[in-house]
Design goal:
Layout (H helix, E strand, L loop, with lengths): L1 H4 L14 H18 L3 E4 L2 H14 L3 E6 L9 H17 L2 E4 L2 H9 L8 E2 L22 H10 L7 E6 L8 H9 L7 E6 L10 H9 L3 E5 L5 H7 L2 E4 L8 H8 L4 E3 L15 E3 L4 H13 L3 H12 L2 H12 L1
Parallel strand pairs: 1-2, 2-3, 3-4, 5-6, 5-8, 6-7, 8-9, 9-10
Helix pairs in contact: 2-3, 3-4, 6-9, 7-11, 10-12
Length: 330
């Protein structure tokens, strides 16, 4: 990509955990790169990357320092860890000149938690950090039937299977355990299969028995990390479920709706902004019985998927969001 768009870049290691010596070295490298290239705008993403980037930009006197707040990690943390994470976000925000909250609910929670002043926070349109490509990527009209049939055959899916899907990290915070319990209530009733696209992580890891079941259950398709043809994975789904406990803005929910799939999600931060309840999808609690109930309702109302594509195309196509980013820069 750097070669295609003719830009230079610096690759520097960033540890996910606090590593004082390593972090100071990274800040030094960033400062040197910023000064060497006379950079006027620095944009920071992810809690740790944004923290180091905003500190370096602040030290170098960069006039525009934009922190994209993608979520609040501390929402599902407790005690000293929660307090530390809040103050880290406050420090990152203090070093930034603007803070882009990727959803309205995230912005409101940020204000309640006093992360930064209201006049420093920005929302790009209806949210997200860059939108999605609803025309050339996540467009059901572009799906090749033969290629789709090949994918379905690869994963052993028949035309009679009702596929409940999820994309993202396979961790506790995403409500995977709740989703599995809901699936147990439906698998025989709806002749359902569960398609999970994503990878396991050590942080916030699922219990070992849950991971073993995902890998070995014949009714669960564990696709792992996928870096191409994601639109075909959504095309294999009948419905998309995100039972998450916290989000910034769940892009997977938008991609699924753009592919005309009804979406079931929670009212937690970020998730609440991702659907129009009763029109493009349904809200659920974290209770597995409620999740199962909402899946049954969506099963009977597939037309919500059509509504979802129209809504996402109008408000979240990247061509819409990019205009707000351009305004932010200039």
């Amino acid at each position: 990509m750097a070669e295609y768009y003719h830009f230079e870049y610096l690759a520097t290691p960033i540890a996910r955990k606090i590593a004082l010596i390593s972090d100071l070295k990274t800040i030094f490298r960033l400062c040197r790169y910023i000064r060497k290239n006379h950079i006027d705008i620095v944009e920071g993403h992810s809690p740790k990357g944004a923290l180091l980037g905003m500190i370096a930009a602040k030290l170098c006197g960069v006039p525009k320092r934009i922190y994209f707040r993608h979520g609040l990690v501390y929402e599902t943390s407790h005690g000293l860890k929660r307090t530390l994470l809040i103050w880290i976000d406050r420090l990152t925000s203090a070093c930034a000149t603007k803070v882009v909250c990727v959803s309205n609910s995230l912005m409101q929670q940020s204000l309640r938690d006093h992360l930064c002043p209201a006049d420093k926070q920005v929302l790009l349109g209806n949210g997200t950090c860059g939108g999605i490509d609803t025309q050339k990527k996540y467009n059901p009209e572009l799906i090749d039937p033969k290629k789709l049939a090949s994918y379905r055959a690869q994963y052993g899916l028949s035309e009679s299977d009702f596929v409940i899907g999820y994309t993202g990290r396979l961790v506790r915070d995403k409500g995977i355990i709740d989703l599995l319990e809901a699936f147990d209530r439906l698998s025989k009733e709806l002749h359902a299969k569960l398609l999970l696209v994503g990878m396991f992580e050590e942080r916030d890891a699922l219990p070992a028995p849950i991971q073993d079941r995902i890998r070995n259950d014949q009714h669960i398709i564990f696709a792992g990390l996928i870096d191409q043809d994601m639109e075909y994975y959504y095309a294999m789904m009948n419905i998309y479920v995100l039972a998450s406990y916290r989000e910034g803005f769940p892009i997977g929910a938008l991609e699924a709706q753009s592919m005309q799939k009804p979406v079931i999600t929670t009212k937690d931060t970020g998730c609440i902004d991702a659907i129009v309840d009763g029109v493009t999808g349904l809200y659920t609690t974290h209770n597995p019985e409620d999740i199962a109930k909402k899946i049954r309702m969506a099963y009977d109302h597939p037309e919500m998927g059509l509504n979802g594509r129209k809504w996402v195309s109008e408000h979240f196509d990247h061509s819409v969001i990019w205009k707000y980013i351009e305004e932010l820069y200039h």
